[in-house]
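User: Just a sanity check before I run the rest of the batch. Below are the structure tokens for the first item. I only need the designed sequence back.
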């Protein structure tokens, strides 16, 4: 085994067999693991969302009780809305599929682009916030190394996720459980320790609210609360991750997804509102180079040796959970990217799986994109949260609007409770879209314009990619129709092949027109020279086919039907022919294996493949297409075999 291959297997693990009937059980997640892997994003947002909202209140901290209640209610509203998404789209896709199928493909593009930027920012803001918590324990001179540490953390998570979704979750599980147990304990203890101040809190808050309203007016007061509430909107991030990845959950997927959402809603609403109550009861004040959680936990635990040790453990686990949340961006983001690649908005390579059945190209993409955003923002959490929350609520709002349209169109048909579901979806849409508008308006000049610009750039790029694929597909459909050759109605017996005769081995892809073009070119260039024709094809296991045994068998059936068509065509003209197929995640690797086997049996053989040639070919067109023929030609040359690439101008 080559050194590079051994190193790769050491880092990401040995290959997995996608056709193993138990493999889906191996890679799918139960509700508890999904809560950890996908729900960590939501739970971790309570480490920075409530802090941003509380600080925004300024001296009017008594208003925080309203923010705490509003946060808890909003979490459940959004969670219940996404339960409907899980019911209607059990194959996954979440906000992107809801918007695409219920509001139109271009609205779906906006939702998908927002999701892409959202998951990139999930990685960036969680990593930056985690390092803020960790570096709160260090002297001020350590701050200059914080950005470097954040870069290292993202690279580590990227490598970990290349091993697999379940593997990365199990590795990070102790951190998640430790965070949850200790922080829930601190919230309960912190509130209980100030139980005497808790009872008069509500009447005192009402009195102070009235006094403030008399001083500045009700509208400015409402504006202040909405501003703080919108800045805390980062708290709700991550709630959509489950609906985007329902296909990665164990059966029954809908039930598993709903339980996961329930765990997420309970844990997030408790921690987010609990932190705000702690800030209020313990009169927490911002301290330079420390998070507000660090300040309030220091007050609760005290200055004793045990208190200092517990504080270090608490903040370390808080930082660790934020890294688990960053990991959820690597888990959920590639799936959203793959769904868009299936629809042609994103290069098709992002729907491919690695040998570990991971969307590895997507993982690498999100890692690189996150590093760029991190470098641009210098890891400033307050700026990243603004960018983050805007895109999150674009997806929330479009998803809930799609649900409104669905229940309005299917009133009385899909469910006897359609009216209440429509009413709830509309209410949730009003809540999320209001938060979006307030956040965008209040923070547009402070950095909101950047996320709008980035999202619009992603949308523009997707439109250009879609236009390229649409034009190409039209030409390929026309080519398939033009080169479709009629077959004889009766069965023609197979012709015995002589392995020592000249043999043409033709590579067949998804387009039968390209395959026929290659066959006819070989016959024209080498008239009556080849006595045998062998057709090779690879069934690629990608995001579309790796959803269950039924999808895999359908893919196999399509590959075999295409190959049989070429064999039958040759037989009806008295030409010896046969077909061979292989299946896997890497086209070049599987074709190389087949080529090696055939080369031993048919020593007098030449391989043929076609390559699309574009008028204005550049690195962009090469990136949009897999360049399989060129990669395979190199592999065959290393084996001492010949591969002739026939140019096909498009």
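Assistant: Here's the designed sequence for the first item:
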């Amino acid at each position: 085994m080559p050194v590079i291959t051994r190193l790769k297997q050491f880092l990401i693990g040995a290959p997995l067999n996608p056709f193993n009937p138990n493999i889906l059980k191996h890679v799918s997640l139960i509700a508890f693991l999904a809560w950890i892997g996908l729900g960590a994003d939501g739970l971790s947002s309570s480490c920075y969302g409530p802090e941003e909202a509380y600080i925004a209140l300024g001296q009017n901290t008594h208003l925080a009780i309203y923010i705490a209640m509003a946060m808890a209610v909003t979490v459940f509203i959004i969670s219940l809305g996404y339960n409907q998404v899980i019911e209607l789209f059990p194959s996954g896709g979440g906000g992107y599929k809801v918007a695409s199928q219920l509001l139109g493909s271009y609205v779906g593009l906006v939702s998908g682009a927002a999701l892409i930027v959202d998951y990139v920012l999930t990685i960036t803001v969680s990593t930056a916030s985690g390092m803020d918590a960790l570096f709160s324990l260090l002297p001020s001179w350590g701050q200059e190394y914080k950005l470097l540490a954040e870069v290292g953390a993202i690279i580590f998570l990227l490598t970990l996720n290349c091993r697999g979704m379940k593997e990365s979750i199990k590795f990070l599980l102790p951190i998640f459980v430790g965070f949850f147990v200790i922080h829930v304990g601190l919230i309960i203890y912190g509130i209980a320790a100030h139980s005497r101040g808790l009872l008069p809190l509500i009447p005192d808050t009402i009195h102070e609210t009235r006094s403030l309203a008399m001083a500045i007016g009700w509208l400015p007061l409402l504006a202040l609360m909405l501003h703080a509430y919108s800045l805390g909107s980062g708290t709700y991030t991550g709630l959509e991750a489950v609906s985007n990845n329902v296909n990665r959950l164990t059966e029954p997927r809908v039930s598993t997804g709903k339980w996961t959402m329930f765990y997420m809603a309970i844990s997030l609403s408790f921690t987010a509102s609990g932190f705000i109550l702690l800030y209020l009861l313990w009169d927490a004040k911002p301290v330079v180079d420390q998070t507000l959680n660090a300040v309030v936990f220091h007050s609760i635990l005290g200055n004793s040796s045990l208190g200092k040790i517990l504080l270090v453990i608490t903040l370390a686990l808080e930082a660790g959970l934020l890294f688990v949340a960053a990991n959820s961006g690597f888990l959920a983001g590639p799936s959203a990217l793959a769904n868009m690649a299936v629809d042609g908005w994103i290069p098709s390579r992002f729907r491919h799986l690695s040998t570990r059945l991971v969307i590895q190209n997507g993982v690498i993409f999100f890692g690189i994109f996150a590093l760029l955003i991190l470098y641009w923002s210098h890891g400033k959490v307050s700026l990243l949260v603004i960018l983050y929350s805007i895109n999150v609520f674009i997806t929330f709002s479009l998803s809930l609007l799609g649900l409104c349209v669905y229940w309005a169109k299917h009133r009385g048909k899909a469910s006897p409770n359609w009216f209440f579901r429509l009413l709830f979806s509309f209410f949730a849409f009003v809540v999320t879209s209001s938060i979006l508008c307030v956040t965008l308006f209040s923070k547009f000049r402070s950095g909101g314009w950047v996320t709008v610009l980035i999202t619009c750039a992603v949308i523009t790029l997707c439109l250009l990619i879609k236009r390229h694929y649409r034009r190409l597909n039209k030409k390929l459909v026309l080519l398939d129709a033009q080169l479709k050759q009629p077959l004889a109605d009766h069965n023609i017996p197979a012709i015995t092949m002589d392995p020592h005769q000249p043999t043409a081995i033709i590579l067949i892809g998804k387009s039968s027109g390209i395959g026929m073009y290659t066959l006819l070119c070989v016959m024209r260039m080498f008239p009556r020279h080849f006595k045998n024709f062998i057709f090779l094809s690879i069934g690629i296991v990608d995001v579309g086919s790796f959803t269950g045994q039924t999808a895999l068998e359908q893919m196999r059936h399509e590959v075999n039907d295409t190959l049989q068509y070429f064999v039958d065509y040759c037989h009806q003209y008295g030409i010896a022919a046969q077909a061979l197929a292989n299946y896997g995640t890497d086209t070049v690797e599987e074709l190389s294996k087949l080529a090696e086997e055939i080369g031993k049996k048919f020593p007098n053989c030449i391989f043929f493949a076609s390559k699309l040639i574009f008028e204005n070919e550049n690195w962009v067109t090469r990136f949009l297409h897999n360049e399989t023929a060129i990669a395979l030609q190199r592999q065959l040359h290393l084996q001492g075999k010949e591969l002739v690439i026939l140019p096909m101008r498009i």
